[in-house]
Write a structure and sequence with these properties.
With 150 residues, the chain is α+β, with helices and mostly antiparallel strands. Helices cover 22% and strands 27% of the residues. The strands form two sheets. Strands 5, 6, 7, 8 and 9 form a five-stranded mixed sheet that branches. A four-stranded mixed sheet has the order 1-4-3-2. Helix 1 runs antiparallel to helix 3 (93-106). It is elongated.
Length: 150
């Protein structure tokens, strides 16, 4: 397996609410909910999905938790909660603060103010309406051996 990721899919409780948060609130571009012509049943997942193609080519998808669990063949508890965070690098401390504010106004929960970390970064967290964690990170040039964030 090559060390790369092409698609990240988040299981969500309410697909329309998640679409509004990411598209209308954060500004991610999407055609909206697609795949509605594929209804599911008790054993087979439905096709309703929201997809965003991000600037670096990564596909970011939103899929109902119940359907993700059916698709993966696991119980609903396996796709609940957030055992990881998604990192988003920015070019300034002000941009960290701006994005956290934007996420809060869009319906996310800002999890305390951004602050300097002992290891040299400035960051803060928000969670989306389904509890998925995002860390917004600024690497000052001295803290990032490769230069500033893209």
């Amino acid at each position: 397996m090559k060390p790369r990721i092409h698609v990240i899919t988040l299981g969500v409780a309410d697909l329309e609410r998640a679409l509004r948060f990411y598209r209308d609130g954060l500004g991610f571009r999407s055609e909206g909910i697609t795949g509605t012509q594929f209804p599911g049943d008790d054993e087979n997942p439905a096709g309703d999905v929201v997809m965003f193609t991000l600037e670096d080519g990564l596909v970011f998808a939103l899929y109902p938790r119940s359907e993700l669990a059916k698709d993966a063949g696991v119980g609903p508890e396996a796709v609940a909660g957030s055992g990881f965070s998604i990192g988003h690098l920015v070019e300034s401390r002000e941009e960290v603060d701006r994005i956290l504010d934007l996420a809060g106004r869009a319906g996310g929960q800002v999890l305390g103010p951004a602050h300097e970390r002992p290891w040299g970064i400035y960051s803060g967290y928000f969670s989306d309406p389904d509890g998925h964690l995002w860390e917004i990170v600024y690497f000052p040039p001295m803290a990032n051996p490769g230069g500033s964030a893209p």
